[in-house]
Each structure stands twice: as structure tokens, then as C-alpha cells.
Amino acid sequence: MSEALANLLNETRQFPPPAELAANANVTADAYDEAAADRLAFWERQAGRLAWAKQWEQVLDWSKPPFAKWFVGGQLNVAYNCLDRHVEAGRGDKVAIHWEGEPGDTRTITYAELHRLTCQAANALTALGVKAGDRVAIYLPMVPEAAVAMLACARIGATHSVVFGGFSADALTNRIQDATAKVVITADGGYRRGKPSALKPTVDEAVANCPSVEHVLVVRRTGEEVAWSAKDHWWHETVETASTEHAAQPFDAEHPLFILYTSGTTARPKGILHTTGGYLTQTSYTTHAVFDLKPETDVYWCTADIGWVTGHSYIVYGPLSNGATQVMYEGTPDTPHKGRFWEIVDKYQVTILYTAPTLIRTMMKWGEDIPAGFDLSSLRLLGSVGEPINPEAWIWYRQHVGGGRLPIVDTWWQTETGAVMISPLPGVTEAKPGSAMTPLPGVVADVVDDQGQSVPNGGGGYLVLREPWPSMLRTIWGDDNRFIETYWSRFGAGASGGGSGADWIYFAGDGAKKDDDGHIWLLGRVDDVMLVSGHNISTTEVESALVSHPSVAEAAVVGATDPTTGQAIVAFAIPRGSADTAGAAGEQLIADLRNHVAKTLGPIAKPRQIMLVPELPKTRSGKIMRRLLRDVAENRSLGDVTTLQDSSVMDLIASGMSGGKSDED
Ligand code: 6R9
């Protein structure tokens, strides 16, 4: 077998940018040429979009790969760049955040107010003994204080570690201990699915096992009763009574900004470390370039949680450093009704919407009548992140959210990359549904085979990054060896023993292919690739084939051990709202779906078995946890479910299985 990954799906639709957007785009095709001519000079110009207290002496120091230093010798303050400079420029009255609580309560926060709140929080943290370089854990719901807490840490040079509000006491304990956090910022609780959901008891349980924690700052959100200890301080009594004056000190470009633990499927979470100057340069530039953000007129909304890297880069640092007006929403998309997202778009006249394929597929499942009930005409650009977006979901998004006219930017990146790396430029690229298209200017990505050789157009393999980029992770917190091993030892110099002159190649862990035009298609995590009768088949392509059937909203496929083919494809499919799946109709649908996949991708990709299920197991950022489905498909007891968004879905799947099985041919 020669191919690293089979190339089965052939998608020919293509959508040019709307003429008006192209004519007024922030970034034009010239950017690709400029970056290709001199990549470091290109990034240097993007760094110049920020306010620096001290100019750098060197753009990139790559003399000790894979440890990079960007903008060496430069100094800046991240919070100053996100807040003070907008206020100083007379934009203090501009709305920074339109916050919408799940129960319908709202707050409108201007840049001047966000600045004052951040100064107060910076003063309060300093009074609690937090100094530059100390770690602060943040475990909050989607309330404005989450952004304030992050910015306050950045302002005083403390390194924040945001932990998803849905994680267990164990997960929180591990993360606090790994970073030896001195302070935890939390809330009594938040609202989820129409009711208060407590957070403080989880923190109490974790802190009992975390001797490093000296203080806990507690935001009052739900007003529910909480236990109280000597370490606890109410946010409204400490932060909101502190001085609103605080002079931001500049920090070195390589000063640690945050640690974010990847929701990894393996035992020990990896604390991904990001630093100051390069991270802000690239998050800020990509917000400007990929979303074509016009701070004076756009209303931007990223639906991610702040505990995901997307919330860090594209709610807090990217949009605020550009002076954007944005929406922040606390709750779930179906509370109190399934049109909540569209109601919010209409209410705030959102122009740019950035969400995840999982949400789009959920909306497909609920049916297009729901978005059709709202006025979405304010929208001008749509974005997607987190997983490959299936071509059919892409088309649905464009049709039923984008009125059949809006550009979609499918943005590939990772916690590790810090910012978007591969994406269309909305004013330039003729996008293909399901493809992230091309590396952004200044980014050098490639698809390689097992030997690390670049694959020709039409070939599949592994996604790699060939050159360092400003917002790259600097290491895994406390574990340089694991950093080298995980990302730099598969290909290039790191695989052949190192050396600073040789090429270091970053291994992203994703399968990908180049189509005949050289455009990049992401094919899912390489750990999930299925080996069927000697062919490497990507989960994404089979899932996309299933989703292209009119009765399927969402699908996940896994390879299960099979006596004849090595692995066999087992699929889990969620029917669309309208599909009839009872009894014989369900059996018929399963038979149709198997044939549909065989017809779309070829007989090699025909699933052995398809189960119709009501839900799929997902992480909090919406990624399907195929590992758990593999357990189901191979009749094993379930592995670690701590990062699952809703553990009851595994029961639902197990109970739905008996009726939905299909026998082999
Ligand atoms: C930003 C984020 C990273 C992994 C990544 C890949 C998948 C993200 C994608 C995508 C295909 C896209 N991924 N965006 N796959 N197309 N547009 O999601 O970070 O949570 O660290 O996950 O997500 O597999 O390697 P993170």
C-alpha cells in the first residue's frame, strides 16, 4: 500500500467571495506574495499593528529549535493593547461586549468600563499577592468577569490557566496542581439549560487537595448559597471596591501569557504554554484578516466557551486587540428555545458569526424552519472551527444561515498553534465546501507521507508545519521532552537526531489531503484513521458521505476490529428532524445509507454496520469522542469519560443500539 491516506471524496462546488466584500477586504491577495517574499518581514509588519513599549531587536530566534523566540527584546502589555489604547484613542464609549445571560439578563460593557474593571481586578490580584510569573486558575461560566480575569492577569504578567466550567473536581485539581496556581477565580455558579449550575463546590473539593492555592476569588452570579472558607473572597467585595487606576507595565515578548490544557484523550493533560508578543501579533492579525473585521461597523460573535482556545484567541485577545464590538452569550443554544442563537443574531444585528461544525449539524438536525423564523440579514460573514466541516453542513450553513450568499471561512488551527493557520481569506479565496483551502500568509503548511515527503496534489497524508509561526506554543508546561516528542519527533530534524541547521517540522496529528488544485482538506486525527483491508480511510470522508444523505444530520465513524478486513467501518448516525426512523423505515434507512456511502466513496468505504442514535459523545468544544464509540463498537467497557460534555449520551447510545444494528452483507 503506497498511499498514506486514501483520497475518496471528490467535491467540485466552489464559491467566489461576494464582490462587495472583495472590493473592501482588509486583506487582499497581495498578502500571500508579500509573505512569500519575506516571511519574517511580513510578521514584523503585523507585529507593528500592536503598541509596543520597546521595539524588538530580532524578529525570530530559531537557534535552539524547537524552542522559538519571537520579537526578541521587545516589550508590550497585552491588556494595554486590548483596552487602554482604544480608550486613549477616544473610543472609550464604544461597546466592547454585549453580554447576554442565559436567563435573558444583559450587560453592555464599553471599552472604558472593561478597562476600569480590568484595572480593579489587577489591583485586587496584586493585593492578594499575585506577582508577574505567578499562575492563576480561572474556572468561570461565560460571564464578562471571565474576560476581565484573563485581562487582569495579562495586565500584571500573571499566567492564567482557564479550566472549562464543566470539568470535574479531579480535572480541576490536576490542572491547578500541574501549574501550582496561587489563586483560583471562580463563581458561585452559572446558568445552563435553564437552571443554576454550581461551580464553587467543585472548586472547594479541588482546593482541599491543592496546597499551592492561597486565595479563591468568587464572582456572585446565581446568588445560590455557597460554603465559605478563610481563603475565599467575594469578587464584588474585593475587585469592585479596588482602585480603578492601574498603570500597565510592559513585559518581555516571551513572557508567559497563559497555559491551556488540551482536552486530550490521553491520561495526563498537556499544559500548552503561550507567550506574549508573538501570540498577540498573530491572534490580532488573523482576526483582522480572516474575519475581515471592521471595528467601526461590525458586531462580531464567537459562540465558543472561554475555556477553549477559541475563546482565548477569538473572544478575548484577537477581537479586543482590534477594538471590536462583540456579543458574549452565557448559555446553551436551545435554552429556552431552539432559535436562541438566531434571536441573538437578530437582537444585536450580528455581522460576523464564528461557530463550530457540531453546532451547525445540531441546527441541521433541528431543521431549517428554525433559522428561517428570524431575520438574519445583518450577517455578512460566517466562520467554522473545531472539526472538519462536512460539505453538506457547509452548504446548509451558507444556505440557511447565510441566505445563500455569505462567504464561509473554515479555519484550521489548534490550541498549540494559538491562532488560525489554514483558512480562506474571505475577500480573496474561492472557497470549496469542506476545505480549509490554503495556509494564511506567513504560514508554511504541507501534507507529507510516512517518510515526511511532500505528497503531490491528489495525495493524502499528515499535516505538518514547516516553519515556526509567531503564536506557536513554546513548550508543554514543565515538560520540554514531551513537547519535543509529541510535536517535533515524527518528521524532520527532530526525527533524525536534531541539529539546529536542519529543518524542524511540526507534526499536527491531523490527517489531510491536497486536492488537484493543491487545496488542503482536513481528514480528522491520525489516531482515528481506519485501516480497512490495507487502505487507510479517514473518518471525516465517511462521515461527510453520510451527512450528504438528506436523512442524516450528523455522523461519527470508527474502525472496529474485524476478522477479515483488519478493521471494519462502524458508523453512528443522527437522523435529521424530518427523517422517519421507526421500525422497518429505520432498517431501510440503514440499508440506504450503506449503499449511499459505497456509491459516494467506493465499496471499500461501505460501513459494516450503522447505528441510528439520538446523540454523539462530544467534548465541551464539540469534538466527537470517537475513542468512546470505538469502545461501544468493540463491546468494551467505556474508557475515561471525564472530558465528555454530557455523560448520559453514552447510555442513550447503548440503549439505542439494539434496534439500530445492521448485519453484514
Ligand atoms: C481551534 C481548536 C485542534 C484540533 C485540530 C483538528 C481539529 C480544528 C478544524 C479542525 C478540521 C478545521 N480542527 N479546526 N479540523 N477543520 N477547521 O479546535 O483547537 O481544541 O486544540 O483542537 O481540532 O483535529 O488538530 P483544539
TrEMBL record:
A Pfam short name: AMP-binding
Modified residues (N6-acetyllysine): 623
EC number of the protein: 6.2.1.1
GO biological process: acetyl-CoA biosynthetic process from acetate
Cofactor names: Mg(2+)
Modification comment: Acetylated. Deacetylation by the SIR2-homolog deacetylase activates the enzyme.
Keyword Kinase: no
InterPro entries: Ac_CoA_lig, ACAS_N, AMP-bd_C, AMP-bd_C_sf, AMP-dep_synth/lig_dom, ANL_N_sf
Keyword ATP-binding: yes
Domain AMP-binding enzyme C-terminal: 541-623
Domain Acetyl-coenzyme A synthetase N-terminal: 30-82
Binding site for ATP: 386-388, 410-415, 510, 525
Residues reported to bind CoA: 192-195, 310, 533
GO terms, molecular function: acetate-CoA ligase activity; AMP binding; ATP binding; metal ion binding
GO cellular component: cytosol
Residues that coordinate or bind Mg(2+): 547, 549, 552
Reactions listed under catalytic activity: acetate + ATP + CoA = acetyl-CoA + AMP + diphosphate
AMP-dependent synthetase/ligase domain ranges (all copies): 89-469
HAMAP family xrefs: Ac_CoA_synth
Function: Catalyzes the conversion of acetate into acetyl-CoA (AcCoA), an essential intermediate at the junction of anabolic and catabolic pathways. AcsA undergoes a two-step reaction. In the first half reaction, AcsA combines acetate with ATP to form acetyl-adenylate (AcAMP) intermediate. In the second half reaction, it can then transfer the acetyl group from AcAMP to the sulfhydryl group of CoA, forming the product AcCoA.
Stated name of the protein: Acetyl-coenzyme A synthetase
Originating species: Micromonospora deserti
Gene that produces this protein: acs
